[in-house]
Design brief:
The chain is α+β, with helices and mostly antiparallel strands. It contains five helices and 17 strands. The strands form two sheets. Strands 3, 8, 9, 10, 12, 13, 15, 16 and 17 form a nine-stranded antiparallel β-sheet that branches. A hairpin with a 4-residue loop joins strand 9 and strand 10 (about 165-170). It is globular, with a radius of gyration of 20 Å. The structure holds zinc ion. Zinc ion (ZN) binds near residues 329, 334, 346 and 348.
Length: about 350
């Protein structure tokens, strides 16, 4: 279905057709590899194919659709975060595209689209996809793909029912891992948001030029664990009969998990104290941590936060003449982007 060097317009058309025809079941064939459940500690739930030990097998593309979850905020003061992504590569060498939901301490939930590419864009990643501002909110159906289109060039695409985004990225290394993920932060510093569930469909990866459904690939099922107590926060279901769909279910947000050893009271208070500097720009930056090892997260976030703040201040204050003509959010009175489907500030749907 997907091949290398597809013209950008063509690949976007394919995504659009899939978005419209999502109810059509894929042909089923016999599963070649039985999925294994990965029981290591993890900040990720979903499915992974890993050919790190079979370097002749190159991951040259990934495709997937999902619906942005509606985040439940039990207490308005609770800060929580979750994000969904397609990722090729891992560690400090990957390309990713996805959506994030960040519940702030004032009770609003910010819905974002983002991409990331490392190491080429380490200091900037993840990058908020501002082209999709106002178009990604609770319940939005998302189609996304990452495609290798030349030896050192990858195309990333994301579409919604109303609009699309496409960008070419330079990335030279060969990649051997593909992942469809629901994630929290690696270091557990922000609790997992209650996303209820996220279902992925049309999960395909292109291996050495051949697009193949998830169930025919050597896949691993990942569960999301609490880092400290090793209990389950999100559970991943089996691949459905279509061979390319699965659901990740929310289990619990954060400790206390049902394990005997509770942390001392003083430490618990420190850990549950919400970060005081969380703001708009940090929403997406927090998402970066999920892809990285914990030791690197703080360094990257600190550097990225400073640079992002510098950039965000002027960009948000530009074009006052235009924004003054735009409608305001009925819930939070923020200025809405023209033709916006959602408020970028609070996630409110625009009727
Ligand atoms: Zn609003």
């Amino acid at each position: 279905m997907l091949h290398l060097a597809l013209p950008k317009l063509y690949s976007l058309v394919i995504l659009s057709v899939l978005l419209i025809s999502s109810g059509i079941a894929s042909l089923t064939t016999q599963r070649v590899f039985a999925p294994t459940i990965k029981t290591l500690r993890s900040s990720e739930a979903g499915y992974k194919i890993d050919y790190t030990n079979k370097t002749s097998l190159n991951v040259e593309g990934i495709l997937g659709f999902w619906t942005v979850p509606i985040i439940r905020v039990p207490n308005a003061s609770d800060v929580s975060l979750v994000f969904e992504s397609l990722t090729v590569g891992f560690g400090a060498d990957y390309i990713s595209i996805g959506t994030s939901q960040f519940a702030e301490s004032n009770g609003t939930v910010k819905y974002r689209a983002f991409y990331a590419n490392l190491p080429e864009n380490t200091s900037q990643s993840p990058v908020r996809i501002t082209d999709l501002n106002g178009m990604v909110g609770p319940g939005t159906r998302i189609g996304a793909q990452i495609l290798k289109i030349a030896s050192d060039t990858w195309e990333i695409d994301m579409i919604t029912p109303q609009t699309s985004f496409s960008l070419n990225l330079v990335h030279a290394s060969s990649l051997h891992v593909a992942q469809w993920l629901v994630q929290s932060l690696t270091d557990g510093s922000v609790p997992l948001a209650n996303f209820n569930f996220v279902s992925f469909d049309h999960a395909n990866a292109t291996i050495n030029g051949v697009s193949t459904r998830l169930n025919l690939l050597d896949n691993e099922r990942l569960r999301l664990f609490d880092q400290s107590n090793n209990c389950n926060l999100a559970d991943t279901e089996s691949i459905t009969a279509s061979g390319d769909s699965f659901t990740v279910d929310f289990v619990r947000a954060a400790p206390p998990c049902p394990v005997p050893q509770a942390l001392p009271q003083v430490q618990t208070q420190n850990q549950t104290k919400p970060p005081q500097i969380i703001n708009d720009s940090l929403t997406i930056l927090l998402a970066a941590g999920g892809f990285l090892v914990a030791g690197v997260v703080i360094t990257i976030l600190s550097a990225a936060l400073i640079s992002a703040r510098r950039k965000n201040i002027p960009s948000e204050s530009t074009t006052p003449a235009l924004t003054s003509m735009n409608a305001l959010c009925k819930k939070c009175s923020s200025t809405l982007k023209p033709n916006a489907r959602f408020c970028d500030n609070c996630g409110q749907a625009v009727l």
